[in-house]
Amino acid sequence: PRKIFSGIQPTGALHLGNYLGAVRRWTQLQNARDDVTICIVDLHSITMPHNPPVLRENIFEMAATLLACGIDPAKTTLFVQSAVLEHCEFNWILSSLTTMPRLAQLPQFKEKSRTLRDVPLGLYVYPVLQAADIMLYKATHVPVGADQLQHIQLAQHLSRSFNSRYGEIFPVCQALIEQNEASRVLSLRDPSKKMSKSENNPKATININDAPDVIAEKIKKAVTDFTSDISFNLSGRPGVSNLVNIHALVTGQSIKSIVEEAKQLDTARYKERVADAVIAHLQPIREQIQMHLAKRNELIYMLEIGAEKARQTAQQTMSDVKQRLGLGTNA
Ligand code: TYM
């Protein structure tokens, strides 16, 4: 049976990239009766400068948002990373199996460390903790957006190294990346880049809980080009193509039929159509988020049940790992 694991940073609201590239897939996998575990990775979030009260709120907001998107705690194990101590413990052990040059070349590290004067060790070790997340649950499949591929490859490498030194206990996981354009939703301000929370311009990302007029405004201002008709050509016309792509993903229509229907429209009119479709798709989710957020005690309870389930698996793995490494005194 497939064991699915994925994680998401508690950044508060999801943006459309997280949602279309990853979260929507998780709900499909969960409903296909796979064994799914989803982790809100708060320990990863402190590798960049952060504000503690905001982080705490963002954890709840992320939990509410995942429920609103259709994650069902009766089917999926949903928990907060820091509630399961084994993530840190295993991170330490795996860091002894990793070399510094291997981490230094990872693209996400290179990108983020460029913006900082002093680079925290945590940012450097970040992908090792991510491998620990995956391996603790012996995941076989990891559904992520295209930007996470190198991190998954590190997890594969660490599983192989562990297995060859200490015995075959970890499956070598496989990344599940959407084969369509959902794997890479682009920034609305700079379509040469992916849509990302870390971009400074708030107009670059659509958040899943943005109010309808905010969504309409962001799409209206989306950077396109000087050609006014609508066509799909990601390399030649990334801005317009990204809108067509988003439009297709939220309506379930094919890119071809979207382009066909937009034949008579210029970019300005077409943007209104895209905005309407995005607003309509996100409206029910937005309402559900508010509903779940208002019941904080239920969220706390649900996350504790999730952590308890996760702990059982994580503790089993760690006890096996320590045994094999000769750690401690337990024979
Ligand atoms: P994070 O929190 O940045 O993003 C969560 C998920 O959203 C995907 N994603 C996108 N997909 C398509 N287009 C985009 N523009 C876009 N932006 C983000 C990401 O690929 C991701 O799947 N390091 C991870 C979190 C993590 C994790 C793990 C993932 C920690 N431990 C273990 C898998 C397994 C991260 O920062 O994702």
UniProtKB/TrEMBL annotation:
Transmembrane segments: none annotated. Catalyzes the attachment of tryptophan to tRNA(Trp) in a two-step reaction: tryptophan is first activated by ATP to form Trp-AMP and then transferred to the acceptor end of tRNA(Trp). It is found in: Mitochondrion matrix. This is Tryptophan--tRNA ligase, mitochondrial. It comes from the Eukaryota. It comes from Drosophila lebanonensis (Fruit fly). The gene is LOC115632228. The lineage of its organism: Eukaryota, Metazoa, Ecdysozoa, Arthropoda, Hexapoda. Belongs to the class-I aminoacyl-tRNA synthetase family. The chain holds residues 83 to 413 of 714 of the full protein.
